[in-house]
Fold this sequence. Notes:
Radius of gyration: 18 Å
Strand content: under 5%
Number of helices: 11
Low-confidence stretches: 255-265
Shape: globular
Number of strands: 2
Distance between the termini: 18 Å
Largest sheet: 2 strands, antiparallel
Oligomer: single chain
Structural class: mainly alpha
Strand order of the largest sheet: 1-2
Amino acid sequence: MRHKSLLNKLADQYETVDFLQGDPAWFMHQVVGKRNQETMAFIASCLSYGARKAFLPRIQHLLDCSHAEPYEWILKGKYRLDIPDDDRCYYRLYSNSMMIDLFQALQKMYQEYGDMENYIRRYAETSEQTESKSAFTAIEALCHYFYQHDVKGIIPKNTLSCCKRVCMFLRWMVRTDSPVDLGIWGELIDKRSLIMPLDTHVIQQAMRLKLLTSKSATMASAQKLTSKLREVFPDDPLKADFALFGYGINPVSYTHLTLPTILRV
């Protein structure tokens, strides 16, 4: 089927080491050790919105502050030596005090559970989730934790929104056999359950390909799009994230291709 050929071709073309250049995923590859990678990836995902030229230096600053040991930097509260607890802007809508609140909640998580992976595992075990290895359960777990610890404006308080940055973080953590994604949570979450990180760019490309008709950035839309992409990549639906990225770079080359009705929302 022609649409499968197109999306597979684009995914293979763009899911390469070169993709990391200028992408926030680059930062998690600059640290060593599973807990450091988890921590750096989470911090990078939280700051990944707006213009890359603006947010990449702010992530780099935190990597520098931690001396490439972000897990210990958080666990031992060393972030307080580098980030003042005041209302001055750290990045766009995030103030210094908001960053302190985020790091303080993360520190408590690490003190109680050891790391984020173990927290999500415990959440799934104790909340009677029928799909314990589901990405949605992990999203729900993270939204619940940071809301309960009064972190506002960084992590969504619930799963009604598309939770784009959380979904992106989970892609980084879960997808295996990738030159971009780490796959260090491959045993925790089934990659077939991952949900597409939905933003304006992804919505635009999905609509051009007739995969979506709504511009709504909700969890329902993200799940609907993921379901359609699972028809192309049944074992790894978020491989399509790279295909949509590539299609957005040069969509003109592919406008003559029409996707079959089965994929249309």
